[in-house]
Amino acid sequence: MRNLRLVIEYDGTNYQGWQLQPPPQPTVQGALETVFRDLTGEPALRVRGAGRTDAGVHARGQVANFFTESSIPARGLMLGANSRLPRDIVVLSCEDVALDFDARRCARGKIYRYGIVNRLVRSARDDRYLWHVRFPLELAPMQEAARHLIGRHDFRAFRAANCERENTVRTVRRIDVTRGDDDRIWIEVEATAFLKNMVRIIAGTLVSVGLGQLTPSDVASVLAAGDRRRAGMTAPAQGLEMVRVLYDPSGTPPPEWIETEREPRRKGAPPPGVDVPVPVDDDEDDDE
After folding, report:
1. Which residues are CB-neighbours of 198 under 8 A, at least 6 positions away?
2. Coil, strand, or helix at residue 121?
3. What does CATH list as the number for 109-241?
4. Which residues form the catalytic set?
5. Which tens digit of pLDDT belongs to each residue from 57-95?
């Protein structure tokens, strides 16, 4: 038995997210499993991702793993997969790893980036990847507001209404709000785990601050009150991408306190490593 670690890049525009969905809905996980099953001749092969991105969300550095009895070298599996995958999904790397490596459980955090084009007219070239905000955004108050969200907090005000996670405490390590020289604004968030729509609601709230609809102190109050209605809108999916999944270089599993920020497996749920199709998407990750 071998365990293969993948790093994957994809344009999520044409997919109903990462996670398997009932047919005929296209998903990134489904496309990968179809290809690797064909290559290995193993019809039960499962590809387990570090996080489940929602419909329309992209990834620059998604990580996944799968088990196989195939003797095909890792490089051959990568090249074979890329020759069969749709052009909007690419396996950037494939390598043999220890059997106890799990793309999700071994992760110590993730980095997401939200992109905005801030000018009067939208971008024809980047419309699939950026949120168009036509009115000028003030960067300084957005940066001040972001600082209130850094640290270990209860983020129940920054999750979707249908988020089922019981534990809503998360640790945000950093939020960087920067402006490029081409009317682009980037909101990059690093955290141990995320709630459903958390990054997109943070982005929508910071845009409200940049427009003068909320103040930085309002954001602190929203966080303390835990009232979703007082936060900003959920920013559109196309502006979000998973940038990177973080692991300890030594392969050491994450400390126990990070595990407390992940939802425990529900009674009757399949064991880790076994995925089943579900009728709804989870958002940025499956462990928040």
Report:
1. 155, 158, 159, 170, 283, 284, 288
2. coil
3. 3.30.70.660
4. 54
5. 999 999 999 999 999 999 999 999 999 999 999 999 999
